[in-house]
Design a protein that fits this description.
435 residues, 11 strands, single chain, 20% strand, 5-stranded antiparallel beta sheet, 3 domains, alpha+beta, Chitinase A, domain 3, Trigger factor, domain 2, Alpha-Beta Plaits
């Protein structure tokens, strides 16, 4: 087997492979002989069909199968021979496949960059130090009461926290658009259900009133409506005021606390808040160490991996699969895609260099939690998840990444930072939205 490799651009490589004709022809012949002993054909006894007829009937199909297999085998052999580490799948183009001639094909791919992780000892993180107070619990209970409010119609102008029931119909330049209309739509003022222009117009409105509301869609919106202004005709059908339930045993029972009343409810709320706090602290620490790891290491990124990540982000955002991506749309995903590829490469290198092995008990624990939260019978859900190859691969990658974060936190310099529960949750939500 002859192999030649040339650099196309950056990490790009073009590899040409030539395989002796005998390797293909001998395997084709072997398979055809094996078929002749088993094939059934009218006019011949089983196993007695002449090779000439078997070759004529099945030769082309068998040769195509062998060619595909030999290309895959020799591509891997050529990579090993040349000590190349590709990033992702190659584009393979056959150059010569005729019978009796050496097989030739060309494979183009990106290499993984050579990485030596730097600066781990420079990482410094702030760990939120958050104590959950009685006032924090009171605040959550107040929100829960408002969320479970009943609404009673009132004969007055709408104000904050009222529920306003509306019909609306919108047009852009006189034309309707997707999602432009609704009937009997309930809107609780102050919750951000509708754009600010809508809520501002509804404050002070009364049942039976008709309004005209203009709304400009954001320029950066990922839709055909970006940058356009819609005009909505709105009819206010009802204004209702919230009737907040009392904080008593009945309310506790409504939230699933059958014994212990208000005190048991407070304990459950505190426990949930502690869990939310711990998750938020973990996410903030993870974000800090990974951001600094990325900032401290400049590496050349394989363009094929970046392209694949751009497409994945596009699909996650509801865009179409495949197809040419306009430059303006690509730029919206480019930075995040490059960061994800960079961190993926750095994490993989730390796994390799530090000998980090998958914690299978940790993985099984997460799998059990997923099964418990699935809404199905936990044992059946666990079995289904364990048989889902894509789920298991994703979970494995997630767990090994968390183990790398653990290792980085062990190396990092950490300082505790006192913070309230609301500060932690609000800042964490903003950081998550930004990311």
């Amino acid at each position: 087997m002859q192999v030649s490799v040339e650099t196309t651009e950056g990490l790009g490589r073009r590899m040409r492979v030539q395989v002796p004709a005998e390797r293909v022809d001998q395997e084709v012949e072997r398979r055809l002989k094996d078929m002749s002993s088993r094939v059934k054909m009218d006019g011949f006894r089983p196993g007695k069909v002449p090779m000439k007829i078997v070759r004529k009937q099945y030769g082309a199909r068998v040769r195509e199968e062998v060619l595909n297999e030999v290309v895959q085998q020799t591509y891997s052999e050529a990579l090993e021979q040349e000590a190349l580490r590709p990033a992702g799948s190659p584009h393979i183009e056959p150059k010569r496949t005729e019978e009796g001639q050496d097989l030739e094909f060309e494979a183009t791919f990106d290499l993984l960059p050579e990485i030596e992780v730097q600066g781990v000892e420079q990482i410094r993180v702030e760990r939120p130090d958050v104590a959950i107070t009685d006032a924090d619990v009171d605040s959550v209970l107040e929100r829960l009461r408002k969320q479970h409010a009943d609404y009673e119609p009132v004969d007055r102008a709408a104000q904050e926290e009222d529920r306003v029931v509306i019909d609306f119909h919108g047009t852009i330049d006189g034309e309707a658009f997707s999602g432009n209309a609704a009937e009997d739509a309930p809107v609780v003022l102050g919750t951000g259900q509708l754009p600010e222009a809508f809520e501002n117009a509804l404050r002070g409105a009364q049942a039976g009133q008709e309004l005209t509301v203009e709304h400009a869609f954001p320029e950066q919106a990922d839709s055909d409506l970006a940058g356009k202004t819609a005009v909505f005709q709105v009819t206010v059908k009802e204004v209702a005021a919230p009737q907040v339930p009392e904080l008593d045993e009945g309310f506790a029972a409504q939230l699933g606390i059958q014994e212990g009343g208000v005190e048991a409810l407070r304990e459950a709320v505190r426990s949930n808040m502690e869990s939310e706090r711990d998750q938020a602290v973990r996410q903030r620490l993870k974000r800090q160490v990974l951001d600094q790891l990325a900032d401290l290491n400049e590496i050349e990124l394989p363009s094929s991996l970046v392209d694949g990540e751009v497409q994945a982000l596009r699909e996650q955002a509801g865009g179409q699969q495949g197809g040419e991506l306009p430059e303006a749309e690509r730029s919206a995903y480019e930075e995040a895609a490059r960061r994800r590829v960079k961190l993926g490469l750095l994490v993989n290198e730390l796994v390799r260099s530090q000998g980090i092995e998958l914690d299978r008990e940790r993985m099984m624990q997460q799998l059990r939690e997923m099964a418990a939260n699935s809404g199905q019978d936990p044992s059946e859900a666990l079995q289904q998840l364990a048989q889902d190859r894509e789920t298991m691969q994703s979970l494995e990658a997630s767990v090994i990444e968390e183990q790398v974060v653990d290792w980085l936190l062990e190396q990092a310099q950490t300082e505790d930072k006192p913070m309230s529960f609301d500060e932690l949750m609000n800042s964490d939500a903003q950081s998550g939205a930004s990311a």
